[in-house]
UniProtKB/TrEMBL annotation:
It is found in: Cell membrane. It is a multi-pass membrane protein. Residues 53-337 form the ABC transmembrane type-1 domain. The chain crosses the membrane at residues 50-69, 89-109, 168-188, 194-211, 282-300. Keywords: ATP-binding, Membrane, Nucleotide-binding, Transmembrane, Transmembrane helix. The lineage of its organism: Bacteria, Bacillati, Bacillota, Bacilli, Bacillales. Residues 370-606 form the ABC transporter domain. PROSITE patterns: ABC_TM1F, ABC_TRANSPORTER_1, ABC_TRANSPORTER_2. This is ABC transporter ATP-binding protein.
Amino acid sequence: MVNNVRKPFGYEPIIKREDLKKGAKRKREEVGDWKKALLNVWRLVDEQRGLLITVLFLVFASSGLSLLGPFLIGRTIDNFIIPMKTDGLAMQIGLLLAIYTGTSLTMYFQNFWMVGIAQNTVYKLRSGLFNHLQKLPVSFFDKRQHGELMSRMTNDIENISQTLNSSFIQVFSSILTLGGTLAVMLYLSPLLTVLTMTIVPVMFIAMRWITRRTGILFKEQQRAIGELNGMIEETISGQRIVKAFSQEERMKEEFAAKSDRLKRTGFWALTYSGFIPKVMNMLNNAAFAIVAGIGGLLALRGDGVVTIGTIVVFAEYARQFTRPLNDLANQFNTVLSAIAGAERVFSIMGEDVERDEAEANGDIQLKGNVEFRNVSFGYAPETDGYTVEDVSLSVKAGETAALLGATGAGKTTLVQLIARFYEADKGTILIDGIPIDELPRATLRSQTAFVLQDPFLFESTVRENIRYGKLDATDAEIEEAAKKANAHEFISRLEEGYDTLLTADGSEISQGQKQLLSIARAFVADPVLLLLDEATSSIDTVTELEIQAALEKLMEGRTSFVIAHRLNTVKKADIIYVMDQGKLIESGSQSELIAQKGMYYMMLQQSKL
Ligand SMILES: Nc1ncnc2c1ncn2[C@@H]1O[C@H](COP(=O)(O)OP(=O)(O)OP(=O)(O)O)[C@@H](O)[C@H]1O
């Protein structure tokens, strides 16, 4: 492995020759994607065409005015200063003042409106991405690190915002200024123009050398930021686990490694991009020396082909010529990282959303008869086989089915299929005789409630957390639900009652109380179908009894699937299903299963319930 950069300050070089070659190859492969991403961003920008045209007009005006300024200065030197003529000088200076004021004003307004366009575009992009995320299936989130997704919502969009804010105008005005300057320079002195141009190939070679490296590094930096964010998010949300398993040191090491990668990419990215102004400055001075030296010699001949005014103008134009090149080179990286960001954002936007083949044909009121006909499902069936295999079952409206089985048997997966979090690969699930994929998800989910082992709470008040079950529930309905869920009493004891603020992990209330809140949430939703995952964690007996009683009340008159861990729940179920490695191996009432002397019987014997 050959590194082509030395190692200053202990910063290991991270670009390898292979990377540069790969970089070039990757660029060619990714052409389709970045073109699509740019086109998509452009569509959003183009929605504000009126403002955009105004901005472009102002860019034209400011570029024209900034060409006119030096030209008039040259004229002033040749026509007023050198001949020491004062007649009309005041007017000439007034004109110059007007031109420079005009340049500033046009620049101010083009920036003002461009920032507006950029912010509107980014607003639409951000909302578009967020709305799209809401429509993506659960399987999409299974495969992604949440922090990495958050990084796309924030960092990548911020990069696009930065580029639109400044680079868009800069690139456009640089191109205009370049063209205009070249034209005026050629008009003033083709010879000096050709001489000034000798620095351009040097500039291109230097820039290419730098930007090939910075391009790779900035992409790498974005990736490193995404990974680091992912890790920070995981470590914070899983903090208890980290502490419980004393993994702080390992997390620190892992974080240090990731952070070090970011530091090194950042160091090299900024080091290389820092070369740009230095190189440009050097070339600028070289151009100035050429113009002043050779121009001076020509002016001394006194044949009027090159005047002192022309040299002054040229020196200014030579600067004006390299500045947009410099700007373009500087913008190159910002634009590159914005394009990389846009590619990532639009790759999510291109992910398939949960589609409903069945359009909502009025609100169907479900009764709650659930039937599985030879249902199979796998998270990755090609490689890992089926997690739920050839399951057939039937639960009548209002009945309670208890699901039993060893850990990993597929109980949670089966229950999630009922809410269409995943689609069955084979077979059919029917609700009230309607195949589930013919029911709009919204209809199905609005009549289904989940009560999970570890309920998720939002960072909001107790009241709002319960209201999540039915957004238009009145305060009275919320209290009523809390009473039914045996949660009212503990809520009333909280300092601010229903208005107590909860944090996202609900650490200010106990695990059992969290369960009660989620039961209250289910009561408010008043669902036809209940999907329950009984808590396995030990909860104090009083709360445990309250939860049991609340759940029993909740299940009354509703079709319930309970992933059961308590003998009591199993006894009260209308039907018990025992799962093993994705298959239903036993089903029937408590007494029937005992008589079978199968897995259920064994579990009873071993007091696994
Ligand atoms: N999102 C997922 N992606 C891939 N595989 C998964 C996913 N969720 C679960 N699995 C796998 O599917 C299998 C069944 O998991 P499932 O959670 O359905 O079992 P379970 O019977 O509910 O277990 P437990 O009682 O421990 O909750 C397990 O091997 C698990 O690793």
